[in-house]
Amino acid sequence: MKRWNGWGDESVDMHLAPTAKALLAELVGEGEPQQDVSLEATIARVPTSRLPAHPLVDRDPEVRLRHAAGQSFPDWVHVRSGSLARFPDGVALPTTADEVRSLLRYADEVGARVIPYGGGTSVVGHLTTPAGEAPVLTIATTRLNTLTHFDETNRLASFGAGVTGPDLEAALRARGFTLGHYPQSFEYSTLGGWVAARSSGQQSLGFGRIEDMFAGGTLHTPAGDLVTPPLPASAAGPDLRQMVLGSEGRMGILSEATVRVRALPDSERFHAVFFPDWAHGEQAVRAISQEGFPLSMMRLSNALETRTNLALAGKERLIKGLQQYLELRGVGEEGCMLILGFTGSRELVKLSRRKALSICKSYRGVHMYRMLGNAWRKNRFRTPYVRNGLWTMGFGVDTLETCVSWSRVGQAMHDIEHALRTALEPEGERTHVFTHLSHFYSTGSSIYTTYLFRLAPTGEETLRRWHKLKSTASEAIVKHGGTISHQHGVGEDHRPYLVHEKTPLGIEALKANCRFFDPNGMMNPGKLV
Amino acid sequence: MKRWNGWGDESVDMHLAPTAKALLAELVGEGEPQQDVSLEATIARVPTSRLPAHPLVDRDPEVRLRHAAGQSFPDWVHVRSGSLARFPDGVALPTTADEVRSLLRYADEVGARVIPYGGGTSVVGHLTTPAGEAPVLTIATTRLNTLTHFDETNRLASFGAGVTGPDLEAALRARGFTLGHYPQSFEYSTLGGWVAARSSGQQSLGFGRIEDMFAGGTLHTPAGDLVTPPLPASAAGPDLRQMVLGSEGRMGILSEATVRVRALPDSERFHAVFFPDWAHGEQAVRAISQEGFPLSMMRLSNALETRTNLALAGKERLIKGLQQYLELRGVGEEGCMLILGFTGSRELVKLSRRKALSICKSYRGVHMYRMLGNAWRKNRFRTPYVRNGLWTMGFGVDTLETCVSWSRVGQAMHDIEHALRTALEPEGERTHVFTHLSHFYSTGSSIYTTYLFRLAPTGEETLRRWHKLKSTASEAIVKHGGTISHQHGVGEDHRPYLVHEKTPLGIEALKANCRFFDPNGMMNPGKLV
C-alpha cells in the first residue's frame, strides 16, 4: 500500500549503505531520529466534514487525510510531525467526464473550493487545503485511468487524465509504442498532473517536454468544457493547449488527454563519462546540446554530487577501484560524472554515441562504458525512496531546480549552492549541497540542486530551517533570471517568485484568464497566481 | 521599388513559358487581360486624414495607400480594380520602443484604431482598415529592423521586429549562424509578422516552426509592456509567449524579438523522388515523418501539381526526356514528385538521406538525384511573382492550407480539391486545382492547395467567384477537423471558421485575453476574434 506519510509503496525500502550514516554525520552532524505521529492519531484529528452529502463524495476521515498533502517539504513536516492543520472536507473519485461536470456543479452550489488531485506527488504545495470558511472538495482523477483510444496511423493515444506513468507505458508498450515521459515521480504521477504542472521527464532531450507530447484534451472548467483538438500544428491564433499546460488546477480539471506517441526504439544505451572538473564537463554538454545530433538524455553531476553518489552507493571496493583508475586517467577529487543516453534506431544510436563520446574526449572526458549508465537506469525512479530512510535517521532532504541560459549556468549553480550552504550557518547548522544538470537545450540548461540538513527537534523549527534555505536559494535563482521552476510547477511554494519571470502585467493576465474560466474563484485557490 | 499593386520588386518578373498561355486556356479557358487602375488615380481617391498631426505620423496619401492592403486575394482585387474603400489615416514608422509606446498613447488619446504592419505580406486580411468613425493609425515596424544583440554562447539573437527574412539571415550568416525560417514570403515578411501570425517556414521539418524559434520579446500593449524572457524552458505556469504567438496585433505590437539560432550547417542537399501514384507517395512521407531521423524539408506534389509544374517549367525537351525515363521506371500520368531536403553535419545528412531514400524505394519511389531538388531551391521564393503575370493575363490564383491527422490527409485533400473544382461549375467556369504536402509531423501533415480560375469582367464579380471558392473549400477543411490555417494565420478571411477549432468557449477566452491587454478595443479590430 502507498505510504500515507512518505514516498512510495510501504513494501519498498531503499537502504543506505552502512557507511552512509557515518558519512552523513561527518557532512552535517549526527541526525536526531524522528518520532512520527501515527496514522490513527492523525485520523482522529480530521474534523467533521463541512460538505453536504453527495453520492460521489467520500467524507471518510482517512480518505480525506490521504488526499490532504503532496510531497513538498512542508507537506512532509506537517504530516510527520502532526501539524497538518487542514483537510479537504470530501474526496470524489469520478469515473466519467459527466461525473466531473456534476461534481463541479455541486461544488459551485454548495460554495466549495475544489482541489484537483492526480498522483499526489506535487513537491511545491499544489494540494494544500485552503484556509477559510468555504468547504473544500478534492476531486481525484484516480479512476479516470484507462486508455480510451489508440490510433496507430496518427500516432495518438488518449487516456483518462489519472493514468499513472507505469500504466500509461504498459498500455502503449503492449502495442509497440511509447510516450517516453519519465519524471522521477513516474511511479505515481499522472498524465493530467504532468500537463497541469508542465512536467519534464528524464529523457526530455530526446522525447521532449510534456508540452511537446500533449496534443489536446478536455478541461472541465466552471465556465464549461474547454476541448482542444489533437491537431499536428496550427497557425490559427494563440494555442489554447498552452493555457491548459501549467494551469495547475486554477482553470479546471482535465479528464482526458491525448498524447503523441512513438514506436518503441530499436536500441537504447546509457554510458558514463568522467571529466576532470566542472568546467570541462559543462563545456562538453553545451557542445553536445548545440551540435544537433540526437541524444535522449544527459545528466552531469558536479564534483560533490559525483563523490556523494559514489560514497552512498556502498560498493566500497568497486568504487575504490574505479577511483584509482580515474586517478590514473587524470580525474581526481574534482571529477564530474556525466551519464549519456542514446535512444532510437541502431544506426542513429551508433552515430550519436560516436559523436557525443568524441566531443567528451575533446574535453578530457574519460569514457567508463555502460556499467554506471546501466546503474543509473536501474535506479532512476528509486531516489525518492531514500528520503524515507533519511528522515527516519533525522535528515531532511529536498531539491530545487531552475533553468538558465548557458552563460549563467556556472555562476547560478555556485550562487544557489552557496546560498543553501551558508543559510543555516548562523545557527550552527551545516547543509550538504550538490547539483546536476539534467535537461538540456541549445540555449541553456536546467540546474537541479539537492540539499540535505538536520531535522530540528520540532516540526516547527524544521520548517523554519527549510523556509530559510528555500527562500535564500529562490532569491539566488531569480537574481540570475532563472525560472522558479523548470519541471515542478509553481503551487504555493514558488508563487512569491513567479512575478520575476512573468512580470506584474503577465501575472494579472494569468489571473484574468483564471477568472474567465472560474468567475467565482473556486478552483484551487492560493496556487500559481 | 516594391510593387504597390502586386508581389515583390518591380524589377523582377517571372515570365511564364510561351506554352503556358495555351495550357491555361486549355485548363480553364482564355483569360481576359485586365485593365488595372493606376497609382495616381488611386492616390487621388485617398480621403483626407481624420488623424490630428503627430510628429511620427505620416498622413501623405501615397504612404497611406501603400500600407492599406496586404496580399490576400480580396486585397489584390480591391487594389487592382480600384475598389479599395478604406485607407489608414496615417502611417508611423517608429525607430524605438519608446516611440511605439508614445504612438499607442497618442492613438488612445485621439480614439484611433491601430493596425500593426510588418512586411505587408498577409494573405488573410490582417491589414484591412476597419470601417467606422474612428480614425485608423498604421504602425509599421519597418525601421525597427536591426540586430540588437547577438549571443553566441546562448545561441540567441535579438532583432527589431521589423527585420525581414534576408536581413535577418544576412546578419546571422555573417556570424556563422542561421535561423532557418523560410516562409515563401521570406523576401518581405518580418520576424514580428512571423510571430504574430504563427508562421512556418519551408524547412520547418528540420528547424521547427516560429513557436520553436521565438524565445521571447517585448509586446507593447495598451495595458503596458509584456516582456517575455528568453528562457530555455520553464514549468512556471502557462507560457505567456504562447499568448503573443498568433495574437495578430490584437493584443499589441512587438518591437523586439529574441530567437534561438543555430550554427550554419556543414551540408545541405535537396533530392527529388517520383512515386507512381499518390498513395505510395503519401505512405512514404508518413513513414519518413514517423521514423525519427532528421530531414529539413519534404514537399510531396500530387499528380496534377507535378504535371502542372513540369508543364509550366517550359523546358520542353528536358521534361519530355524526364517523362520518358520515368515511364520506363513505372511512373506515368499519375506520378507524384517529392522533394526532400537534408541539412546538418555531413554524417547526419548522409545517414538521413540513405534512410529516407531507402524508404522511398520501398514505396516504389524513383530517385531522380539532385537536379530537380536544386531547381526547387533556386525558385523557392519566386512563386509569388508568377501571380503578377497570371493576373495580367486574366487569371486569378490563390492558395489555401490546413493541417490534419494522417488518416485524414487523402480524403481531406480530395474534398478540398473537389469543392474548388466544382464551385464555379454552375456558372460555366472551370477551376484548375492542385495540391502538395509540405510540412510534416509524426501525427499528420499540412495540405497546401493552389487554385487558378479566370478573372471576371469586374472586380466585384471576381471577388464573388473567389468568395464562393474560398468558402466551399474552408467548409471542406473544417468538416475534416482541419485547422483553418497551418501557417498563414486567421486575419479577416479565416475568422468565420476559427470557432470550429477553438470552440465557442475558447473564442470567448481569447476575446477576454485581448480585452485584458486592450480594454478599449483599439488594437487591430475585426481580425482573429
From TrEMBL, chains A, B:
<dbReference type="InterPro" id="IPR016169">
    <property type="entry name" value="FAD-bd_PCMH_sub2"/>
</dbReference>
<dbReference type="GO" id="GO:0008609">
    <property type="term" value="F:alkylglycerone-phosphate synthase activity"/>
</dbReference>
<dbReference type="InterPro" id="IPR016171">
    <property type="entry name" value="Vanillyl_alc_oxidase_C-sub2"/>
</dbReference>
<dbReference type="GO" id="GO:0008610">
    <property type="term" value="P:lipid biosynthetic process"/>
</dbReference>
<dbReference type="InterPro" id="IPR004113">
    <property type="entry name" value="FAD-bd_oxidored_4_C"/>
</dbReference>
<dbReference type="InterPro" id="IPR016166">
    <property type="entry name" value="FAD-bd_PCMH"/>
</dbReference>
<feature type="domain" description="FAD-binding PCMH-type">
    <location>
        <begin position="84"/>
        <end position="264"/>
    </location>
</feature>
<keyword id="KW-0285">Flavoprotein</keyword>
<dbReference type="Pfam" id="PF01565">
    <property type="entry name" value="FAD_binding_4"/>
</dbReference>
<feature type="active site" description="Proton donor/acceptor">
    <location>
        <position position="448"/>
    </location>
</feature>
<dbReference type="InterPro" id="IPR016164">
    <property type="entry name" value="FAD-linked_Oxase-like_C"/>
</dbReference>
<protein>
    <submittedName>
        <fullName>FAD-binding oxidoreductase</fullName>
    </submittedName>
</protein>
<feature type="binding site">
    <location>
        <begin position="116"/>
        <end position="122"/>
    </location>
    <ligand>
        <name>FAD</name>
    </ligand>
</feature>
<dbReference type="InterPro" id="IPR036318">
    <property type="entry name" value="FAD-bd_PCMH-like_sf"/>
</dbReference>
<comment type="similarity">
    <text>Belongs to the FAD-binding oxidoreductase/transferase type 4 family.</text>
</comment>
<dbReference type="Pfam" id="PF02913">
    <property type="entry name" value="FAD-oxidase_C"/>
</dbReference>
<feature type="site" description="Important for enzyme activity">
    <location>
        <position position="299"/>
    </location>
</feature>
<dbReference type="GO" id="GO:0071949">
    <property type="term" value="F:FAD binding"/>
</dbReference>
<feature type="binding site">
    <location>
        <position position="387"/>
    </location>
    <ligand>
        <name>substrate</name>
    </ligand>
</feature>
<dbReference type="InterPro" id="IPR006094">
    <property type="entry name" value="Oxid_FAD_bind_N"/>
</dbReference>
<keyword id="KW-0274">FAD</keyword>
<dbReference type="InterPro" id="IPR025650">
    <property type="entry name" value="Alkyl-DHAP_Synthase"/>
</dbReference>
